[in-house]
Amino acid sequence: MKQRLLAMAAVAALLSAAPALAKEDEAPSKRFTAERVFDMEYATDPQVSPDGKTVVYVRHSMDKMTDRDTGHLWSIDLASGAHRPLVTDVSAGRPRWSPDGSRILYMSSNGNGPEMRLLYLDSGRSFSLAQFTEEGPSAATWSPDGKQVAFSMFVKGETPSFAKPLAPPEGAKWNDGVKVIDNLTFRFDGAGYLKDGTEQIFVLTVDGGTPRQVTFGEADLGGPQWLDNDTLLVSGNLAEDRDLDPVESEVYKIELADNSISALTSRDGPDLGPVVSPDGKTIAFRGYDDHLKAYEQANLYLMDADGGNVRELAADFPLEFGSIAWAPDGKSLFALCEDHGVLSVYNVSLNGKVSQVVTNVGGASIGRPYGEGSFSISEGRKPVIAYTAGFSDRPAEVATIGANGKDNKVLTELNADVLPFLDMAKVEEIHVASSADGREIEAWVALPPDFKADGSFPMILEIHGGPYAMYSPFFGSEIQRYAAEGYVTVWSNPRGSTGYGEEFAQLIDLAYPGNDYDDLMSVVDELVAKDYVSEDRLFITGGSGGGILTAWTVTKTDRFAAAASIKPVINWMTMALAGDIAQFVRRHWIRADPWSDPEAFLKFSPIRYVDKVTTPTMIMVGEEDWRTPAWEAEQFYTALKMNGVDTVYVRVPGSPHYIASRPSRLIAKTDNIMGWFAKYDPAKQKDEAEDSGED
């Protein structure tokens, strides 16, 4: 109890050092204060109707009473601009138009569990296609004739047992029965300890009724797509050793007449995301040959409907292909690609010619500025693309553009009631030559509202996770919070980041963390040289991959006044044996076994060099994080304590790896980080000392 009270007191002290929320009788601050997180709205999953006249999307808002990000369905008439609520009485998401455009399938919650509903647009009435008590469906998709939907859903399996438990006497209180685990992956972030069972494919008529299971067995299958009204395409791995090969998958065909399943692909490597051409004769899909690298880009392929004549499309295109969709005429495809810090939609002709249609797709979150977003395309001779538009000063909006790249329009202003009346941070883009090898590193700087380049401002270096991910110049509540409190805040894409080609991402293969540290320090050097920040007021933080880089950095330099390592990997040996992606870490990132080659794991582990740390360092992790479990953070915290380094360990109750999954967690994260930095800010320490002397 004493230890718990001490821990609570430490967190309370940090919060007291953080900026306070506005009092009710004070004028609202024009800065982006903590409570503004609850005011934010953003758009995701815009779906344009087949006739190109209407867009339905998910409008997200922050529910202050339930502390949750809640989605509702809204529609936009593209001719008149009418913007109207469609489903707002319950949380709703993943809208999908019927082929004829008369109905919308969507997922909701009836208060007792997930529910699949069908909305008739002519009457505005909806009904429940199916209700689910525990495990809900995902990836629901319409059949071409609009009479059925296919989806994947978890099916419970048989729990292993070696003894029949005794029945306790009536009224007795016995311990719960033992839990037997026999799977290599037995827990996963966001899900906790996994139930026995697999993801299987179901089909349901749109008249409602009981879903029909069409796949069975001990392997997961997902992402159903219709080849025709009687045949499905799915992705998965049916190999016997599938647990030992975490990236392997094939595209399979399922004949609904007899539920027979056959593989259409067979190479060593992932094949996934099949999309059928309008005439049903060609399948586009993504994948790559597995060379056991930590990162390999997904390429774009075509094959005939029977699996034959496989050919790569646009083999010389330098970027990775993300989600894809066929053009209505079947003569090209549209692909969403990470593209030098932003997302872009490209058109890919069947002869491999690639042209950009629209860029700055993204911004579909409010936490950190990751490159996220989506698009959809209508039918007809002049198809319309609906997409999430990203901005530096506001969260994602809904936008449309012609498939020819013309008539780009932003259709929403979801935060026009808030953000125009606040002093938001200005964002600058910079490019820096790395001290490691001169490679260009892209970065963005958020400048406080009262910024002037006089060398006095404190700086926060915010590092992205992944590490195979990409930051963007888009809105992030965390970035705006830091800047609003006076920190020049910089975020960048060091080597290993995606969106700059496979060669750039693979620079950290078997070398992470490594020269990405030099990239980050070069960005910091640039801000010091530009007189944007004070050399004495430098701070560093990052989550996940950014957490390990933060921990790694303080083992190599003492230039930062304080650090905050969030949900880090600290010891690759324990990560490769107990994290939820342990097999991927061992097989693809380290390519060794910790019991036979421990040095391969320890040489890139911050724990190996913890005796070099002198920087005051906060460690933070979610209590239900199974990606980088709490014991990773605890190893660094304990070692720092043993070495007499100022440190504090912050645990976020109920949180998985994504700490900002609830608004209050996002606020607690950023304000505790700033509270820690304020404690060690030389300028604030000087001010406090002067104030103390005056008293």
Automatic annotation (TrEMBL):
Q: Which UniProt keywords apply?
A: Hydrolase, Protease, Serine protease, Signal
Task: Give a yes or no for keyword Magnesium in this entry.
Answer: no
Q: In which domain of life is the source organism classified? A: Bacteria
One record GO biological process: proteolysis
Q: What does UniProt give as the signal peptide span?
A: 1-22
Domain Peptidase S9 prolyl oligopeptidase catalytic, residue spans:
475-680
Q: Extract the Gene3D superfamilies matched here.
A: alpha/beta hydrolase, TolB, C-terminal domain
The UniProt entry, under InterPro entries, shows: 6-blade_b-propeller_TolB-like, AB_hydrolase_fold, Peptidase_S9_cat, WD40
Protein name per the record: S9A/B/C family peptidase
Q: Which organism is it from?
A: Hyphomonas jannaschiana VP2
